Amino acid sequence: MKNRMKKMVKYMVVLWVLGIVFSVTNHANSNVENDSCKPETATSELFIEISNSNIYGFKTYQEEISGFSFSYPETMTLLERYRQEFPYPEPDRILKRISLVEGQMFLDIDVWLKKEREFIDWVGVQDQIFNYTQTNVYDSLSIVTNKQKYAISIQQDSYPRMVLSMELGDYFVQFTQKFTKDANDFQKFVKIVSTIQLGDKFSLSEYFGEKFIAEINSYSVANQKAIELGKVIISADTCCGQSSPGNPFPCCDISSSKGNCTWYVYRQYGYVPFYGDAMTWAAQVVNHVGWYHSPSPAVPNTTRSIGEHRNPPYGHVAYISSGSSSGVNGSEQNWCETGCPVYFYGRPVNRFYGFIYHIKDLIP
User: Fold this and answer.
1) Separation CA 258–CA 268 (nearest Å)
2) Of 102, 226, 269, 362, which has the maximum CB count within 10 A?
3) How many CB atoms lie within 10 A of CB 155?
4) Containing H/E element for 250?
5) CA distances (Å), 352 to each of 103, 107, 307, in order?
6) Coil vs helix vs strand at 31
7) Residue 173 and residue 149: Cα distance in Å, rounded?
8) Residue 159 near residue 275 (C-beta atoms within 8 A)
């Protein structure tokens, strides 16, 4: 009996040792397999780690008019360009514009009051103003709502960019992303959009459907096309020895004495809400609160204005410092021409197609 018990104990010890060896060997083989045969496992873990760490590198902005919020990298500068106070004096125009800026990346976010306008009609008006290269309208695929729509517009000429227009309840919201030569900027834009929350209820993916973000991301090819065609503009902080930090417009050549009219007018005003070539500025006035167009610099009388030509292909704008019905004084830069700036006095009014002015510049 004792011998039998001793044999059983020895047998159990052997099995226990073999079990440990098998366990250690299997664990080692498992680690080798994960490291060498399944790189996607390591990639997935790295992605999760980066995403979690980025949470602490983001700030959250609450848009109080329409109620949505979004997160953005803390390295970006957020600027509130302008807003209308309630009751909105010009409800057909943009109620509020905020901008996110970092390096060459410029992202404008506009909030509009929907009123009685149909989304399709409103997008059509914007398409006429900007003459987009293409505009595609999408229906919501979400079970949350099947009535709201969104549109994606691409402009490959005159300030190449992507415009995401959305119908969010009683508001229209637009995200305008300037194309850059850095593909990471477009991905940053997609990331910002993916963080949008509608109150405490939904994300945009829940609101428009799970394919929403993938659809936006697919338009990165338009950014790449702009790069390949050499159409991406390089925004310049300096031009012809003058400084204008955060100016979205390009200079002909930063190192030379050749300038750009749109860059110069932006600098003189400190900010203008317009995109693209000078020829398109007058048509954009209807979108922006407080901005108007007049055939005369003296009606109404203003402390300053923007004189605009529409000569093809790009048009021209000049900074008007004073003037009357007979002539105007001001200064300008010309695209890739010397003289930065050129000052003029008593230039005939009929040299201009019209004058863009801001209501804050009216003489009381």
Assistant:
1) 17
2) 226
3) 24
4) none
5) 34, 31, 6
6) helix
7) 11
8) yes
Six-digit token string for 258: 């050749």
pLDDT (tens digit per residue) in 262-281: 999 999 999 999 999 999 99
Q: Distance between CA 6 and CA 299 in Å, rounded?
A: 114
Q: How many CA atoms lie within 13 A of 254 on its CB side?
A: 10
Report pLDDT digits (tens) over 36-92. Answer: 222 222 222 222 222 333 456 999 999 999 999 999 999 999 999 999 999 999 999
Q: Hey, what amino acid is at 349?
A: V
Phi, psi of 336 (to 5 degrees): 55, 30
Please list the alpha-helical segments (H only) found in the chain.
2-36, 39-55, 119-130, 183-194, 204-208, 212-217, 220-228, 261-269, 281-284
Compute the average pLDDT of residues 184-208. 92
Q: Pseudo-torsion of CA 93, 59, 271, 357, nearest 10°? A: 20
d(CA 301, CA 218): 49
Sequence-distant (6+) residues with CB within 8 A of 174 are 108, 109, 110, 112, 163, 164, 165, 166
User: What pLDDT, on the 0 to 100 scale, is given for residue 143?
Assistant: 64
CA 358, chain centre distance (Å): 24
The pair of three-digit structure tokens given for residue 85, joined into one six-digit string: 């106070």
- 41 vs 37: CA distance, rounded Å: 9
Give the pLDDT confidence score for residue 119 in this predicted structure.
97
DSSP labels, 34-61: HHHT-HHHHHHHHHHHHHHHHHTTEEEE
Q: Which amino acid is at 107?
A: L
Residue 345: half-sphere exposure toward Cβ, Cα within 13 Å: 0
Whether pLDDT at 7 is above 80: no
Helix axes 2-36, 39-55, angle to 10 degrees: 70
pLDDT at residue 230 above 90? yes
